[in-house]
Amino acid sequence: MMRLPHFRFVSPRSLGEAIDVLASAAPGDAMIVGGGTDLIPNMKRRQQTPGTLVGLRTVEELRRISNGDGMTIGAGVTLTRLLRALKDAPQPRYAGLSQALAQIATPHLRNMGTIGGNLCLDTRCNYYDQNYEWRRAIDFCMKKDGETCWVAPSSPRCLAVSSTDGAPALMSLGASVQLRDAGGSRVVPLSALYRNDGIDYITRRPTEILTSIVLPRLDAWRSTYWKLRRRGSFDFPVLSVAAAARLGKDGIVEDARIVLGAVASRPIEASGIREALLGQPLRDDRIAEAAALAAQPARPMDNTDFGLVWRKRMVKAFVTYALRELRGDDMRAERYKIARQLL
Fold first, then answer.
1. Are 199 and 271 spatial neighbours (Cβ–Cβ below 8 Å)?
2. Ordered structural domains, the chain, with CATH
3. 114-118, 197-201, 210-214, 311-315 — which is least confidently predicted?
4. Rounded CA gap, 251 and 278, in Å?
5. Tell me: the pLDDT tens digits for 58-69?
């Protein structure tokens, strides 16, 4: 049985109180927890050992959803509640976000996990996500207690991968996030929240709280999300493709974004896609060119499920599927076929 280490738990009633607790804590001693579906298992494995946990479940300010020109989502909103809100939202162009959220973990974990927690999800690796005794037996790894990245021993940085489903979907929709600490608040594009480093993967400061996510209105946009994993539920992605496009008259592409997840230590926006698709309909040749461009920045490593060469090939395939769905093709049979092949 893996037991939690000793820690002090603080349950602030307001955002200001939570910020004050973080500001007064010793550097590196305090961590914030929402649903705890990622942090608590990590603590049991001694991957993270904070002396103080600051619980945010009772902070009402973080649990609000508002609709205006777009949508503002409190970071403490559970994944289940956000899914329900998206179904009632007047803008179906958030379909890709709904698809991503529905494929996170299991219903029980979605009932506990929060959207803010999913965006701040720890990076993952076969050599890191093991119990303490297993990791000690291999002399630990660079991400925790060691000096070597066992995925690529000559690598100067940790290659643990980003496994969040919410971030690629929200990035493709042009989302931004608000961060607050004792010094004030700042709003940054969601893409600016991440670094391509398995250890130092997030730009949120230890004293900051991610308070909300803001989605723009996105008139005439369509979006979708494709996720590769071995099982049809529970598993983290070993590849995800979030695609969004604004289509004008006769299906002409006026803007587009494709974001890849689980192929690096951060979600990666595929470069060159917008230029390849802009001003033209989503014909098969355009889709093929865009899929080839999207696959170029993907550098999957041998630290998750499936073979890395095959996962690299699947980037092009999944981008093709996503763009065909944005075009209006019925892709339900293809989704079912993929799920059956991986069983």
1. no
2. 1-59 (3.30.43.10), 60-120+161-215 (3.30.465.10), 221-342 (3.30.390.50)
3. 311-315
4. 11
5. 999 999 999 888
